[in-house]
Amino acid sequence: MAKKFLLLLAFVNFSFAIAFAQERVITGKVTDAKETLIGVSISILGTDKGTQTDVNGMYSIKAKTGQTLVFSYLGYKTKQVKLGDQKTLNVNLESDALMLNEVVAIGYGTVKKKDLTGAVASVSADVIAAQPVSSALQAIQGRVSGVQISSTEGSPDAEMTVRVRGGGSITGDNTPLYIVDGFPVNSISDIAPQDIESIDILKDASSTAIYGSRGANGVVLVTTKSGKEGKTAISINAFGGIRNITKTLDVLTPKDYVTWQYERALLSNDLDKYTAYFGNYQDIDLYDKVVANDWQNIIFGRTGNTYNQNISISGGGEKTKYNLSHSLVKDKAIMLGSGYQRQNLNFKLNHKLYDKLTLDFGIRYADTKTDGAGANEQNENVKDTRLKNAVIYPPFPVSNLIDNEITDDKFNLYNPLVSVYDNDKFAHRKTYNFNGALNYEIVKNLKLRSAVGYDGYRDDQDRFYGTTTYYAKNNVESFSGTPAVTFSNTQRNAIRNTNTLTYDFKKLINKNHNLNLLVGQEYFKTQESTDVTQINGFLPTFSFADTRYLSGQGKASKGAKSFSPDDILLSFFSRANYDFKGRYLLSATFRADGSSKFMESNRWGYFPSVSGAWRVSGEDFMTWSKDWLDDLKLRASYGTAGNNNIPSGQTVPLLEPNGPTTAVYTNGYTNFLAPSKIMANPDLKWETTVTQNLGLDFSLLNSKITGTAEVYLNKTKDLLILFPVGGTGYDYQYRNLGETQNKGLELSLNWSAIRKDNFDLNVNANISFNRNRVNSIGGLDNIVGNSDWASTEIQDDYKVEVGQSVGRIYGYVSDGRYEVSDFEPYNGTSWVLKSGVADVTPVVGSPRPGSMKLKNIYDEKDGKTLVNASDRTIIGDANPLHTGGFSISSRIYNFDIAAYFNWSYGNDVYNANKIEYTSTSQYNSRNMIDIMASGNRWTNLKADGTISNDAAELEAMNANTTMWSPYMSRYIISDWAVEDGSFLRLGTITLGYTLPKTISSKLKMKSARIYASGYNLLLFTNYSGFDPEVSTRRKNPLTPGVDYSAYPKSKMYVIGLDINF
C-alpha cells in the first residue's frame, strides 16, 4: 500500500511539473499615465523570445510560469514582472527623463529628443551649473560635438569664439545666431549661467532653416528658467576664490641682457652709447649680482579674486508661476588695474488669464563694468600692447638713460607700469530685454501665439591715451605728446513681433499617425547709433581719472554722432512634423526672408529644408535585440539657410565719421563726416548654405550607454566677402564671391557605468572632425590676409587658395642659421656667400655667420639663389584635425566629484611673440626670452670683449649653440614661429558634499551642498608660449590662431555653497 501511495504521489508531482513547465499565452495592455503605448518591447528574460505592443497597446506572448517578462520602451523605465499562474498581465510604465525623454527646443517650438530628425545638441541646467564659471559658454566648452568654443585670451571680458561645424564665411562673421527665450541677441556672455534652463544648439540646415537668413552658422537656443507649480522655493548659489597666472616666460638675466647689449653695440658701431649706459665691459660680471625686475609678475602676477552669487525665488499655483533671480559677479583680475563686475536681474511670469488664454512675460537686465584696457585690443595700435612691455623691457633700472632712448621710440617700448596706466579704459555696458506673449487655444489643439519684444543695448567706453601711447605721439601737431581721452557711446534698439499658429493633429487617421503644423510671421527692426567725443591737450601730468572728471581742462577737438541704416527683416515661415507609429518621422520647413540690407531685386531669400528619421529598433525584425538595444534611430536631412551678416547700408554710398586724428576741411569748416572707405554694391544678395546630414542615435542596456554619430557636408555659396579694391578711391567693397565647404564627422558617447542608490559613475565623451575647403573665390586663385601684428614689417602672412582651407599661415621656411662653412674666407671687410648657398639679403639683409637662414624654395630663372617673396609657402594651418572633450563624474553617498577635460589636436599656432621676443637689432635696449641667452644663441663676441671674424674661432665658440643671432634688420615669419597648438586641458574639477536630509531638514532647508573647485589647473601641450588656445588678431577672420601679446590666462580655486529652501 505504501508503495502504491508513493507511486501516486510521484505521478501527481510529475504531472504538476509538466503543467508548470507548459507554455501558455499571456496577453495584456501596456500604458503610461495618460494613454496606451505603441511599440513597447516585451521579451522573456534570458531568452531571445519577444514581441511588441500593437496600435492599441495590446500584446500577446507565450511564456511559462516562473519566467520574467521585461517591458522596455524609449523614454520609460524598464519594468520586469515575474509570472505566476495569470494569463492576463496589464503593465503601467513610468516615464524616465534619463532615457532621452527630455524636451528639446527646435525653434518656435519643442519636440521630445527621441523624435528629433535634425542635428541638435542639448546641454541641461545641471551640466551648466556644475562648473563654477561666470559664462555659460565656458561651462559647455568641450561638451558638445561639432561645436568649437575657444577663449581668445585671459582677460576678464575676453571673447569666447563659437564655431558650429567650422563656419562657411571667409571674411565674414561666422558667429552663430543666439536666441534667448525667442529673442535674437548678439551674445550670451551677459547671461548668468545659473539662470539658464537649457542650451540647444541647432547644427544642420533642417534645424536652422526655420531661422532662414540668420541660421547659416548654426543657432544657439537659450531657455532661461521659469517658475514651477508648488510652494515658493528659494535657491542660493555662491562661490568665491582666488586667481593666479598660469605661466610666465623666462627672459634674459641682467648679465645676459647686458652681454647682448654690448655685442649689439659692437656690431652696430655704437659702443659709446653702451658705455654711457652700462659701463665698461670689463666690469660686466658685476651684473651677476643685480636683482632683475620680474615685470611679468609685477604686471600680471597679483593674486586676483572672484566672487559669484545667484539668488532665485520661484514658485506658483495652478494659474500663476514665477521665477525671479539676481546674480552678482565681481572679479579682481590678475593684471594691475583690471577688473570686472556684472549684475543680472531675470524675471519670468506665466499666468493663465482664462481657460484658453495664457500670458508669458519676461524681463532680463544686465549691467557690466570693466576696468582696464587688457593686454591686447583689436581696435588699438599694436605698439601699445601691455604684455610686450612686460616681457622685453630692460630687467633692471638703467641710469643715465632718458625716455626717448630707453623707451625705444621707434616701436614704443615703455616702462610696463607706465604702459598699463597710460593706456587705460573703463567700459560700462547695459543690456535690457522685455518680452511678452499671449497664447490662445482657438479650438482643441489649434493654438495662436503672438509675441512682442524689445531689446536694448548701451555701451559707454571711456578711453585714456597717456603721453607714451601711439595715439598721443601721433596726434595732430598742436596736441602731439599730450594726454587725450575719448568718450564713446553706442546704442542699439531692436523690436520684434512674432505670430505663430500651430495645429496638432493627434491621431490624424488613427493612433498610428500624428501631424503637427506651424505657420508664422516675424518682423525685426534694429537701430544703432554711435556718439564719439575726443578731447585732447590735457596737461602731461593728467591721469585717466583727471581727464574723465576734469574733461573741461582739455579741448574737444572732435565730436560726431553717426546712425547706422535701419536693419529690417520681414519673414514668413512654416513647418510640418509627421510621425507614423513613432517609428517613421518626417519634418519639412520653409522660410522666406526679406532684408533691408539688399536692394529690392535681391531682397528676398527662400530657405527650404526636409529631414526624416527611421526608428530601426521599432521594427519587428529587431525583436532579437530587445534585451540590450533600447533605441536605434537613423536620421537624414537636407536644407538651406542664409546669411546677411554684413553692416547695413552697403548697397548705397554712405558717410561715416573720420578717424581719431584726421579731419576733412571744406570751405574753412571742419567736416567730421567723410565718404565711407567701403564702395557701395547694389548687386549684393544672400549668402546661402546648403547642408546634408546623416545621423545615428542609439541607446543600449536600459540607457546605460547612449550616443550619437553624425556625418555632414555643408556648402556655402555667394559668399559675402569684403574685397580689396585698390586704385578706385575706396579700400574695400562687399561682394558675392566664391564657395566654401565644410565636411565632418561627430561622435558623442555617454556611459552610466554604475547606477546604485548610493553610488554612481558616469563618463561622457565627444570628438569632432571638420575639414574646411574653399571651392572658388569668384575667378581668383587666392587672396591674402594680414595679421598686422608687426605693422608693415610682415605682410600677407595668411593665404587663402582655391582647393585649400581658410586659416593657412604663409611665410618662409627656416633653414636654421648660416654657418661659417656657407661663406668664403672673411676678406677683411665682409662675408661673401659661397656659390649655390641661398642668399637672404632681399629678406633679412646682408647675411654673416650666425644670421637667420631661409630656404630657397623657387630658384630664379637665371639660376641665382636669392631668397625673396616668391619663396614664401604655406607653413602652417590653424585648423585642428579634431577637437573634443570628456568628463568623469561620480557620487558616493553624499560626496560627489567631477572632472571636465577639453582638447584640440593638430592645429598650428602662429607664435608672433616668439618672433618679437628674439630680435632686437633695430630696437634699442630690448630684453629677449631665454632661448637667446648666452650659450644658446650664436655669438661673435670673444672673451676679451672683441668681435671675432675668424672662421675657426667662430666655429669653436658656437659649437654648442643652436639659435641664430638676434642681430637682424626686420622681423621674419618662418615655420620656426609656427608651433603645434595641440593641447589637453583640465577645465574644471569639483569635489562636493551634500548634507544628509536629516540635517538639512532640521535647518529648514530642502538641500545644502558645499563644494571646492579648481578651474584651468592642468594643461598638457608642447606649445612654448603662454597658452595654445589663443587668437589675438580676430579683427580679420582670415588670420586665426595668432598669439601676440595676449592677456595671460589664470587658474582659479574656489569654494562654494548651494542652498535650497
From TrEMBL:
It comes from the Bacteria. This is SusC/RagA family protein. One of its GO terms (cellular component) is cell outer membrane. Residues 112-219 form the TonB-dependent receptor plug domain. Residues 408-782 form the TonB-dependent receptor-like beta-barrel domain. Its main location: membrane. Keywords: Cell outer membrane, Membrane, Signal, TonB box, Transmembrane, Transmembrane beta strand, Transport. InterPro entries: Beta-barrel_TonB, Beta-barrel_TonB_sf, CarboxyPept-like_regulatory, Plug_dom, Plug_dom_sf, TonB-dep_OMP_SusC/RagA, TonB-dep_OMP_SusC/RagA_CS, TonB-dep_rcpt-like. Belongs to the TonB-dependent receptor family. The keyword Transport applies. It is found in: Cell outer membrane. It is a multi-pass membrane protein. Residues 1-21 form the signal peptide. It comes from Pelobium manganitolerans.
